[in-house]
């Protein structure tokens, strides 16, 4: 008996020691990772690196995560694999900003251990910033993964430690293995979270839970669910009040293309409706609509500060080439946009503070027949023209790279971004009065905001050596161009 007790004590002692060394291993791994990043950065080829969009310092990024405001600063995390410019075991990269325009790189916030750190959100509290994310663990039986929800805490908003009682939410009501991307918020005295999941017959759905402490959660309701033609999985849900309505934003996978719609590998869009915190029912008013019509936009997420709702998305797409990957990095984030509901749709406008990037006006005139204009790598174009005639502008790299045509056709009332070889995205647009386009060009990206942001396109276009614009329209097009300053780290 005594012998057994002694060996038990011994075992406990060894377990204790291991626990201590695992913790310090984690802290050591963080330090080593930052050293690795600092060194590896020097090998990155800058030719396609954005000057005012968030991108990983090295390696791969996908979904934006944990978009939040804490202690006077915005925080943005992102799905990050530092060791290669392809997807790999997921970390959380981290940047912060005073104004949603100027970004500072911070140490990697979460490193994978037993679990990969999949997408999630953040909630600011008096005593710190808390992250809620999906821990994805490999298992031996189909589907070979187990997704449960984890917490991590931080006192200073920079150093995060994982809760030792993880996971805090380990099973969807129907046992679906697809159970990820928690978006947490607070309402009155309770925490709420929406999580992306799937019905047993493989239709996408969003689950709503409630908690008083973030550690123990009660399932409330299915907030929304595909009726069969809205995809097999709804990723990255977000749920918020906007202009008197409620919005369910999510990224459905598996939508079939329908004409001009749903042409990307996966889509991102929203449903507008009404919600009641007493019944937990979301009553849909306007069916699913895409939120961005470009080639490269996914996994958008929002945060709210002082009554303004801000959105940021992943500015890349699954299962598409990422030409920058040979340069030592891949994937970036879009500009932050402010959301409004106008009529039955959401409008997106670039965050107001974007004007602080304006360096100088480099052009403000009508462009001549066949005139070619050249710009630097970071430029804002404001285009005005007659709505009753076609617009056709070619944008390409001064020293090569890829191309895109921006078109307006008054007969079809469609705005088009054509990357050549039939790689077209287009959508109907009903502007009042005249054509007004605001275009943000960075080293490898194009964002087109039409009118008041009723229609927005985000597409990657890889311009080598700055931008060149050719007027291929038959009408007078007025262009104002501002060169833009750098606002993201080298
Ligand atoms: C997934 O993990 C949870 C929490 O650790 C555990 O309760 C559950 O049994 C696991 N599921 C599978 C299928 O391994
Ligand atoms: C349409 O015109 C009205 C009145 O000039 C203006 O208030 C509104 O913002 C415009 N809407 C769009 C979508 O441009
Ligand atoms: C411009 O006019 C020419 C000649 O009328 C026509 O062939 C061409 O398609 C027009 N281009 C656009 C963009 O409207
Ligand atoms: C653009 O070029 C066409 C001819 O290619 C010309 O007719 C048109 O006037 C030009 N636009 C401007 C603004 O000069």
Automatic annotation (TrEMBL):
Cytoplasm in keyword set: no
Record keywords: Glycosidase, Hydrolase, Signal
Xref: SMART domains: Glyco_32
EC number: 3.2.1.26
Top-rank lineage group of the source organism: Eukaryota
Family per record: Belongs to the glycosyl hydrolase 32 family.
Domain Glycosyl hydrolase family 32 N-terminal: 53-349
Name of this protein: Sucrose-6-phosphate hydrolase
Source species: Pararge aegeria aegeria
Signal sequence annotation: 1-19
Catalysed reactions, as listed in the record: Hydrolysis of terminal non-reducing beta-D-fructofuranoside residues in beta-D-fructofuranosides
Domain Glycosyl hydrolase family 32 C-terminal: 378-472
Regions that span the bilayer: none
Gene Ontology molecular function: beta-fructofuranosidase activity
Keyword Signal: yes
UniProt enzyme class: hydrolase
GO cellular component term, pick one: cytoplasm
């Amino acid at each position: 008996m005594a012998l057994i007790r002694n060996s038990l004590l011994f075992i406990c002692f060894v377990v204790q020691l291991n626990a201590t060394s695992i913790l310090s291993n984690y802290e050591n791994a963080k330090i080593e990772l930052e050293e690795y990043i600092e060194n590896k950065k020097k090998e990155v080829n800058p030719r396609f690196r954005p000057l005012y969009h968030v991108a990983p310092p090295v390696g791969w990024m996908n979904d934006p995560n944990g978009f939040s405001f804490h202690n006077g600063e915005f925080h943005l995390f992102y799905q990050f694999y530092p060791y290669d410019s392809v997807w790999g075991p997921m970390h959380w990269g981290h940047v912060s900003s005073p104004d949603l325009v100027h970004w500072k790189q911070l140490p990697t916030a979460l490193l994978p251990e037993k679990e990969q750190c999949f997408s999630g959100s953040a909630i600011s509290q008096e005593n710190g910033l808390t992250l809620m994310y999906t821990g994805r663990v490999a298992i031996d039986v189909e589907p070979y993964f187990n997704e449960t929800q984890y917490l991590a805490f931080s006192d200073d908003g920079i150093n995060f430690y994982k809760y030792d009682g993880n996971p805090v939410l380990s099973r969807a009501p129907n046992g679906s293995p697809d159970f990820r991307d928690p978006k947490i918020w607070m309402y009155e005295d309770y925490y709420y979270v929406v999580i992306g999941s799937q019905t047993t017959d493989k239709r996408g759905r969003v689950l709503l839970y409630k908690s008083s402490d973030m550690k123990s959660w009660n399932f409330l309701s299915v907030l929304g669910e595909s009726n069969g033609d809205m995809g097999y999985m709804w990723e990255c849900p977000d749920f918020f009040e906007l202009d008197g309505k409620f919005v369910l934003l999510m990224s459905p996978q598996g939508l079939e293309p329908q004409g001009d719609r749903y042409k990307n590998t996966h889509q991102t869009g929203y449903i507008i409706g009404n919600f009641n915190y007493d019944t937990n029912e979301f009553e849909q008013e306007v069916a699913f609509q895409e939120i961005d019509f470009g080639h490269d936009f996914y996994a958008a997420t929002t945060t709210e500060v002082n009554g303004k709702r801000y959105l940021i998305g992943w500015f890349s797409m699954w299962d598409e080439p990422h030409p920058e990957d040979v340069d030592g990095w891949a994937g970036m984030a879009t500009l932050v946009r402010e959301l409004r509901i106008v009529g039955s749709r959401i409008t997106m406008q670039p965050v107001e503070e974007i004007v602080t990037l304006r360096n100088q006006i480099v052009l403000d005139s009508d462009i001549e027949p066949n005139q070619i204009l050249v710009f630097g790598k970071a430029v804002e174009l404001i285009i005005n023209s007659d709505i009753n005639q076609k617009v056709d502008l070619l944008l390409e790299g001064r020293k090569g790279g890829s191309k895109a045509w921006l078109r307006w056709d008054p007969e079809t009332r469609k705005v088009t971004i054509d990357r050549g070889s039939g790689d077209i995205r287009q959508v109907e647009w009903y502007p009042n009065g005249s054509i007004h386009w605001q275009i943000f060009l960075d080293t490898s990206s194009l964002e087109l905001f039409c009118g008041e942001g009723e229609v927005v396109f985000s597409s990657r276009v890889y311009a080598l050596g700055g931008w060149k614009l050719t007027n291929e329209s038959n009408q007078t097009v007025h262009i104002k161009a501002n060169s833009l300053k750098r606002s993201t780290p080298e």
